[in-house]
Amino acid sequence: MRNKPVVCFFTTSAGDWGGASRVLFTNLYLMNRDKLTPLLLLPSTGPIEKELKQRDLRYVIWGSFTEPGKTFAYLRSFFRACLFFKREHVAVIHVNSSNFWRPAELLAARLLGIPILTHYHVINDQPTPAMAWCQAAIAVSHYTAEQSLPTAINKPVIYNPISLDRFDAGHSIRKELGLSESNIVVVFLGQIRDIKGVQDFIAMARQIPNPDACFLIAGECRDPKRFPGSYSAQDLENMACGDTRIRYVGYIKKVEDIYHTADIVVVPSRWQEPLGLISLEAGACRKPVVATRVGGIPEAVEDGVNGYLVEPEDVDGLTARVMQLIADSALRARLGEAGRVRVEQNFTTRPVREFETLLLSFTHN
User: Fold this and answer.
1) pTM (two decimals)
2) CA distances from 139 to 20, 34, 246 (A)
3) Who has the most CB within 10 Å: 167, 191, 203, 283?
4) What is the pLDDT of residues 179-230, one digit of tens each?
5) Run of H or E residues at 316
């Protein structure tokens, strides 16, 4: 009998890209390895390998999935998975995707009697047939659990964890950006897409007359022709209409540095956010948040406590709350500190321990 069950994690990327990957790797870094042994299966080589090696987390470059229609390749993947799971004594499989499709590997797990869990980082309203093989679907918020299918599957709610060490290590990059300490820096961080409300952020900024205010947009611009709903850097410049206080600073790898640069973080999403990781990361850095009342965001932001909530596309409401915070440094400090306390209490080690407990509940030692 093995002392520490092996939990096999199928990752969706080989980098710290996007919320789902960031959440999984944070969980793994904070996990108690005296209780279980993580084994990661990466879809390809990638930048996360360096950190995994530094943290002594074992991983295998597994490759992409195989469609059932390619009979020989499918059977090869199936038998490869069977041998691998048996050799490694895998006790549980976790798939870090809201709607995964790993038919050969999951069929192997099912035939070997290995429990399969998935993770709903977004709402799953069109589950694949493979969901029938899952014992549980972890939801990142009560909203995500309530809105996702299938209705019959167990959907335990485990919030996203935040690594305080990472965000405490951030520093302001005002000097590099040519900003002074007298500037009030308001930040939008995330995907530069219409559903994220970046157009509402710019419209809000243009309504605020304060000459010392600076509005930073951080994230990756993608070609709208290839990625519908995305905005190019030129699109952002056109929307700013010559307002030099509105600046696109591009993709910032160390997002913690952007939070430490900010005085206020704005999350003007137009779509139903599963939870709103940016609101939590801002709280970890003691920054007040003004966000839209969509999806799971109200589970992260309590109106008037650690930030403010407004209705989606309500530019006037967004403007009023941001102006209130610009004018009152004590209010910013109070809401920011409340955000930190909220993260410390609910979004650090607590969800990691809940994740461990759930995984261990499916092991058969």
Assistant:
1) 0.92
2) 12, 25, 36
3) 283
4) 999 999 999 999 999 999 999 999 999 999 999 999 999 999 999 999 999 9
5) helix 315-327
